[in-house]
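Why predict the complex rather than its parts? Because the way molecules touch one another can change local conformation, and only a joint prediction can capture that. The input here totals 287 residues.
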Amino acid sequence: MIKKVTVKTIKRMKESGEKFTMLTAYDYSTAKYLDEAGIDMLLVGDSVAMVILGYENTNAVGMEEMTIFTKAVVKGAKRAMVVADMPFMSYHTDIPTAIKNCGEMIKIGANAVKIEGCNDHIIELVKRLTECGIPVVGHLGFTPQSQNLLGGFVVQGKNIETTKQICEQVKKLEEAGAFTVVLELVPEESAKYIHERVNVPLIGIGAGRYCDGQVLVCDDLFGKFSDFKPKFARRYADMQALITECATKYNEDVKNGNFPNDEEVFHLSCEDAQSLLEGEKECCYTK
Ligand code: KIV
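Output of the joint prediction:
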């Protein structure tokens, strides 16, 4: 019996000082492999917009697309907690609509939702979702859904004042009920300052070594997404080269007549083959 990672597991790991891992996942097979590898949390990130759908930014996906990808990841995850990233504008609406949208993700099998920011609306929403029994992951520092306002992919908390502001925001999310908070694009020293002043587990992405967990976009980890490589990402493989190599060989094999071979085709019985292929001297596969 596989023991599912829950809010309690993450809390326990934080208390014991054990680091936890989160990776994005968007499809069944990848979710299955990441789960089998022991990744604790799978985030169906809105980064799917860029790395899978080829959109320019993460704001282009909606509830319909996120629902499809979340369903696929849920199917593949046996142990890992599945977190559904709530798409742009799905929770910036009135509170009942935001709760309904978040609830949809839980209904299809996600174990938690992630929402960005920390204004009064978000704090109220985190409280209400927690009351409804929906675990919430916060997201602070650089919040990609506000990139038009922030002026692009810009490191946040670059001075004492803004670091203290982010720290206060983390505390507010924690008080409202968020069980963990993603901290994105923050200098390591600022993340350390915040980490020492809050109890809620912090998941870093481009936030240095002092967070309780780390998250990366799986396509960055695999070396599959090649449009750009964020400074904080580490490529553990070169899937772009692997995919290109496979496709090149397949292309050559088909064109040279080397694919399919005899083991890759279906045959009729000898008798049927002979009577069908009238005039043929011998059965094609007894030659
Ligand atoms: O959508 C995403 O992949 C994310 C991570 C960068 C945390 O939000």
